[in-house]
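Morning run. Coffee first, then this:
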Amino acid sequence: MLYWLTALSDGGDFFNLFRYITFRAGGAFLTALVFGFIFGKPLINVLRKKQGKGQPIRDDGPEAHFSKAGTPTMGGLLIVGALVTSTLLWARWDNPFVWLVLFVTLAYAAIGFADDYSKVSKQNTRGVPGKVRLALGIIIAVIAALWAAYNHPAELQNQLALPVFKDTLINLGYFYVPFAIVVIVGAANAVNLTDGLDGLAIMPAMIAASTLGVIAYAVGRVDFTEYLDVHYVPGTGEILIFTAALFGGGLGFLWYNAPPAAVFMGDTGSLALGGALGAIAVATKHELVLAIVGGLFVVEALSVIIQVLYFKRTGKRVFLMAPIHHHYEKKGWAEPTIVIRFWIISLILAMIGLATLKVR
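And here it is:
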């Protein structure tokens, strides 16, 4: 919205700064961060009052989690509120990719909110049936995939861009939409599975979003794409403002989610963040790079898939408990140790993902 202040500029004054994506991204970060600090404590107080017993704790989970009983959930409302408010304030409203990622974020947040509300109100860990959540998630992803394809340049529509390999595109044709659905739905559920320890999901999500934001800015500038030999996707640069807002809102939330957590993000936050990462990857034609940048989420999801399939086949378990962060809990690792080491892994993977921009 503030972009329109450029209409007051004569080309060399303060208002001219609002033309620059980087300036507005900085403003979005600070706005979301301040939003988190201002509204964090009041929101937690409201959630604690409304939820009473807080998020239900699994009976078969690690014993250390029983001490977390009574902690309120739905803290993702703080992240989403900061993110949406800041993005609407600082991003251009005529950019279709901004509305795409906002739509996916809010839609998945709504699914997560319904799931969290069901768990808290019924005081069980089931929530909304998995098939219902999956069906709704697929519908949202279909809309997002078609939306993205429609706004991509003609030469990139329904194409899969390969990282590292210069100018290489694979025409997926009618299979592009199903592929994009897998990316968005998979990312949403992978982040959701990762959200099992205090601070574990939010920092890797912030790191991945920041990395994708840099990629979005690069592929949205023709001069950068010519230098880097990557595909030019006009308009995606504006996504940097969204990711900056996500980082600021994430930091504001982490202030209260740091061990011992005063609030959990719940499915409201994890599904929204994962869906946003998937939508950004689809918008920027960097779907495969997301698997690198968000590699931690991929491993968490694979650990669950492997555990379930192997148990059904043999009656035995590969891991002491899945997702894999619980495996390390069962092995005796302290929760902060797991969280910080997983953060380090996320940062390493982000650097590898960024390197794909130049390695051709």
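The mean pLDDT is 93. Good start to the day.
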